[in-house]
Amino acid sequence: MVNRLAALAPRRRRSDAHGWWFLAPYLVLLLVFGLLPTGYAIYDSFVVDSAATAGSSLGTGNYQNVFADFRFLPALAHVGMFLLLWLPPMVIGVLFFALLLHDRVSRVTGAMRLIFFLPGAVTGSASVLLWYCMLQPSLSPFAPMLKAMGLTSDAEVFQDGNLTLIFAIMAFTTGVGQWIVIMYGALQNISDEVLEAAALDGCGPVRRALLIKLPMVTKYVLYMVILSFAAGVQIFVEPQLIYQITRSAGSPWWSLNQFGYALAFQSGDFGGAATVSVILLAISTLAALLLIFRTDFFSTEMDR
């Protein structure tokens, strides 16, 4: 037995070495484009320029200035409301359509996956321009419906009170399709024997979805929530472009990311911009850690 284990040791070391070779490119990219910029932003957020001494020193002055800025709390509130309006419907919508596709496999399933994915192909600035035309009463094919709702001009549609909902709809349509495809792929990994056994036990489609399939793809759902939350906290393109197009809807600091952009490129306050980026990083990291450590995200079959 001892001789057998000794013979396996060199093979295991070679396997570990191969794993590190595969991992090395990712670690290099993580260091160059992730850890080093993050470290520099954290350092820059603590560098305080002093007009009195015409120099700089380390301190928390940038954080005090950002938190005291009149634009910070409104931007934080806008992002929080946007996440409430967008994230729960997106998670529920993705799971509903993915489970529906998986339960009703037919010849049209592939076509439906393509139809769901297509809106996600139009992202970023193109999506914002598309939705602006769709909601502009003088351009939209849905103008009669908008007029029936009392919306006859872009000023009535793009009011400050409507912006959060409009941005949530834009983000939903561009993000839901790709996650449906990913979640459908996760559901494909569930063994047919498990589903057949559940059906033989009298488990109907709804109970199979809620009690069998959903628990088996929980980690994929958590992964989707973590990435979507981080993306939502950093919302930038939608409010920035809508403000530039309308010049009246929203503001140049509607979101936290816009606030940081305004500090850097309108005020020249790069220390303040770095502080905002560190705050965004802290919010996303804390939310991710909360989900990871309150669930069995990293547990394996060996741990159970």
Automatic annotation (TrEMBL):
Name of a matching Pfam family: BPD_transp_1
Record-linked SUPFAM superfamilies: MetI-like (SSF161098)
UniProt membrane topology term: Multi-pass membrane protein
Positions of transmembrane segments: 20-43, 75-102, 114-132, 165-187, 220-237, 270-293
Keyword Zinc-finger annotated: no
Location in the cell: Cell membrane
Protein name as catalogued: Sugar ABC transporter permease
Annotated source species: Streptomyces nigrescens
